[in-house]
Write a structure and sequence with these properties.
By secondary structure, this protein is α/β, with parallel strands linked by helices. Helix content is 30%, strand content 23%. A five-stranded parallel β-sheet has the order 3-2-4-5-6, sandwiched between helices. It has a three-stranded antiparallel β-sheet with strand order 1-8-7.
Length: 213
Amino acid sequence: MRTTSRRGSALARSFYFALPELARHAVLGLVTPPKTIGFREVHAAIERLAAAIEARHRHTKSLLLLGIANGGIPLARRLGARLGIKRVGDLDISFHRDDFGRHPIPKEFTPTLLPGDVNGATVLLIDDVLFTGRTVKAALDELFDHGRPAKVELAVLVDRGNRKLPVVADFTGTAISAAEDEEVLVSLRDDPSLDRIEIRPRAARERRAASLP
């Protein structure tokens, strides 16, 4: 009886073993929550961007700042205020997007607003996130519809990688490693304490659209 009991106990123990501890969000079906970069880091990135632009263009007289709609517009305003540059405008790229068929122009959009003549000027294009490079290409097409600048440079708050076109920013606030199926959202609010950068999985419909030829 004692022998049987010991065997039974050993057999029972063999069926109960500790499972390895799963990493957070490793269970199938769970979605990784958004990663958020707070306002202090955002402001530090904007300051790095402004300092780099100021160092190069301290004596540039014909400098125009053009925020690429929509995300680049509030950033251009911030940089203009920080650098004391009044010639700040908006650049709408709706009619130059190569995904125009899949993303029609919304009823409310920001039209191109140039603060001066672009012919012979030094133009600094400003955007919140640099991703594939297609937005920058569309911005250049829109810009050259209005004239021929002497020089065009690009400033971005976030370079997230995954380029599809040969585009490199001249000025970058920060670099973030994000997968192609993630989106990087920059939010610059009227209240700077609410500024943030959010990295989160892209919606399923956006992933399907991105996979189309």
